[in-house]
Sequence to fold (202 residues):
Amino acid sequence: MTYKLIPLPYAFGALEPYIDALTMEIHHDRHYQGYINKLNAALEKHPELTKKSLAELLLSLDSLPIDVRTAIRNNGGGTYNHAFFWKIMTPNGGGQPGGKLGDAIKKDFGSFDAFQDKFNTAAKTVFGSGWAWLCLDKSGKLQVISTPNQNCPISQDLIPVLGLDVWEHAYYLKYQNKRPDYITAWWHVINWEQAEENFVNV
Ligand code: MN
Fold:
């Protein structure tokens, strides 16, 4: 087995009341584990690919063997995106970012509120399953994007800074069809220190 589940950096219930413990347990132990298992199964068919990092695989999807390309896009993306997602949340999170990221958000979006509106719209309007992201592009500018399924921003040559999983498995037990309520709650658990680290350590 090449890829292993990384443990949550906090207890399942630590993000209550914003994200409930049972959702976190099922999301981490079953959904996330499922992506890892399927990624490892794909890599077993092409062991030479294990010499590359997951980010390298996701950046070069078009050059991967055709029989595992979709599996790596979906399950490599799922593995990468979820490992990223657990770290971008924390109990006692939320508020607004300071630091270099806070300055860059104000510069590139005009204000934190304008950025938040744009991000919320991206998250709400993902049709079906996907993600909303704050990313850094090659010119050093921040962008809000969404991706379908488990597609990862790295495959578009973007560096993820912040990401929100809007698959129903991420919120349905507590919020059912009310994705906007889940999005509103999520702002209370953002780990801005981790986002700053993602932003400056490119
Ligand atoms: Mn998920």
